Amino acid sequence: MQHGPSFLRAWIPKLLIPAVGCAITVWAFGLLPQDAMSAAWQGLPDIAPWRCCLAIFLTAGSYFAMGRLEQLWHVTLRLNTQDYIARRTGRIAVAIGQCVGAASLIAGVLRWRLLRDTARASDVARVSLAVSLSFTFCWALSALAALWWVTQGWHPVLSWPLVAVGIAAAGLALHRYGPKVWYQRRLLLSVLGWAQADLLCAGLVFTLLAPPDLPLVQVLAVFLLAFGAGLASHVPMGLGAFDLIVIVFSPAPVAAMLPALLAFRLVYFVLPALCAGVAYWRPRRLPGRDAVRQLLRADAPAIWALSDQGATIWRDTGGAALVGHTPVARVLIGDPIGTVPRVLRTAARYKCSARSASRLRLQGWSVMRIATEALIDPCTWTTDGPARASLRRKLRQAQAAGVRVRLIAPDDMVQDVTRVAKVWARSQGGERGFSMGRFAVPHLRGQMVYGIFENDTLHGFVSFQTGPHDWCLDLIRHDGTLRAGAIQSAIVAGFDDAAAARVSRVNLAATIAQTGPFGWLGQRLGGLHQFKRSFDPQWSPLYHAAPDPQRFLWTAAALLWSVQRPHARLTNWAWQLCFPALHATEDANVRSGPTPQTEVTHDKRILPTARRARLDPRRWRNRDKPVQHGAFFRRRARDVERRSS
């Protein structure tokens, strides 16, 4: 345990702000008359009952806005919590934290206590920091306007230099962070709107409880300054700092403001804290991590392991469903277990089966085939047969090259699997999201991971999500130096273990449909379909459905955005300023610097070489490496180079 001067140096800055707040509290109470408390209690009956009722209603609106701000950060930072759980957690934490004091610290501890079954401590810390910083930033913007208004009333000469300083600060901030602010405009506007709604409701509560003959704007301006000072003092209910600023800058006499200060604390701090305490000690039965794990082990398909990667599982007495979150709506992924939860009856469906699509089409929904999934029965699957001839050839090539595949534990090879995932992410332009798995070592702990080795060096790995009745292919990651047939060997090893575990089905995941309105896209991106076809699977169509054509279009657009631009990328620049990266590959979404030596140079540009009479030999200096132009042009390039030399 640390003692001595170093211990004091570490704790003195942490205790400085509470000590200053306590000193201000003692000083402010010394300025009050001796009978201040009795005068405040005696003045409470003079406040009109309708003002008290309206103040209670506005207090509920203030905490409603705070719950929405909490929910916004839960979605942005991808916590595996349902929306109503996030809102309830934020309201309880803020209500008790503001009443007890040290609001940021107490609220963070309460969030951890309420979410310890569904979120990690690091995720809760990020949410607490994000909520505190965003609310402080929004208060600072309002406080600048309030300070200008108060200064204009007291010393008009000093008000205009404040305007110049504010404009200069805003100009510098936009010059430095303008593109990032524009890129995050939706998030910024949402945070700003809910925080300002919270401050406005709190200010109106204080205005209703204050003497009725005071100017509204003046009272709101004084309240904003006092409210921020009370929160910064870390004293329960802002005692001292809040009262001092209100008494000094308010145009009403001290005796008239004392009942308003007491009534405001009773309505805005004590009453919500009592309600939050009751809700905290008598919580609802919420679906925690243990309940979700039990559902995954008992009945859920393997793809429901996406609940660890941003999706959520919604349940009621009739059934359960896997829900993905897009920027505009919730979307059900796959088919539900039992019946769809009541609150999700009108939600769009993504990758639903043909039976569900047929039933929804009869109900008048808009339905379209979008993908095809490849299914394997590992108990009866073999490499024999003419349809798997190319697969057998690939497996022989991998065996001849000395490729070895074995089951690995990701925790024992964290650096190796992270290196492979980073190289793959750089070569592919980043990872995808929503229903497509993303790399994270904690996610791999519950999966079957097969490492691909050559000369005792890990060059790639394949992972399967496991369920009680099926497995699902999740990640294929490699560093670009794998031999032909290495990935197929890892997948076949997964088939063997699935058959030993008596699993009835292995899902090789979905590919874009080769027919239908988007068949041209599926044929253009047919490499993955051809890869899976070599295993000779059974193909099953998947559909997208929505209650009406308008919702079908904008949910389809939102799904496309969520797959290509997952939520983690929306706040990547904010994490660089405040938070550590959630996953190892999210700092490698954009290629920068020279190409790593482990990657194979592969020029995918379409060049008009077929229309040229003579070919430039310099263009074919990598002719022995895999390029897309084919053997004919490689031979043609050798002839041109031979004649030119």
Counting helices, strands and paired strands, the structural category is alpha+beta
Overall form: elongated
Largest sheet: 12 strands, mixed
Tell me what portion of residues adopts beta-strand conformation: 5-15%
CA radius of gyration = 31 Å
Average predicted confidence as pLDDT: 75
User: Number of helix segments?
Assistant: 23
Question: Residue share in helices?
Answer: 40-55%
As residue ranges, the low-confidence spans are 283-288, 567-629
How far is the N terminus from the C terminus?
Answer: 76 Å
- Tally of extended strands? 12
Can you describe what's shown?
The longest helix has 34 residues. The chain starts with a helix and ends with a helix. The protein has 23 helices and 12 strands. A hairpin with a 2-residue loop joins strand 8 and strand 9.
Which helices and strands, and how do they pair?
Elements: H1 5-31, H2 36-43, H3 49-76, H4 83-100, H5 103-115, H6 121-154, H7 156-183, H8 185-209, H9 216-232, H10 241-249, H11 254-281, H12 289-298, E1 312-315, E2 319-325, E3 330-333, E4 337-338, E5 348-352, H13 354-362, E6 366-376, H14 389-400, E7 404-408, H15 414-428, H16 441-444, E8 448-454, E9 457-466, E10 470-478, H17 486-500, E11 505-512, H18 519-524, H19 527-533, E12 538-546, H20 549-564, H21 567-570, H22 572-578, H23 631-644
Parallel strand pairs: 3-5, 10-11
Antiparallel strand pairs: 1-2, 2-3, 2-4, 5-12, 6-11, 6-12, 7-8, 8-9, 9-10
Q: What is shown here, in short?
A:
With 645 residues, this protein is an alpha+beta fold. The chain has helices spanning 5-31, 36-43, 49-76, 83-100, 103-115, 121-154, 156-183, 185-209, 216-232, 241-249, 254-281, 289-298, 354-362, 389-400, 414-428, 441-444, 486-500, 519-524, 527-533, 549-564, 567-570, 572-578, 631-644, and strands spanning 312-315, 319-325, 330-333, 337-338, 348-352, 366-376, 404-408, 448-454, 457-466, 470-478, 505-512, 538-546. Strands 1, 2, 3, 4, 5, 6, 7, 8, 9, 10, 11 and 12 form a 12-stranded mixed β-sheet that branches.
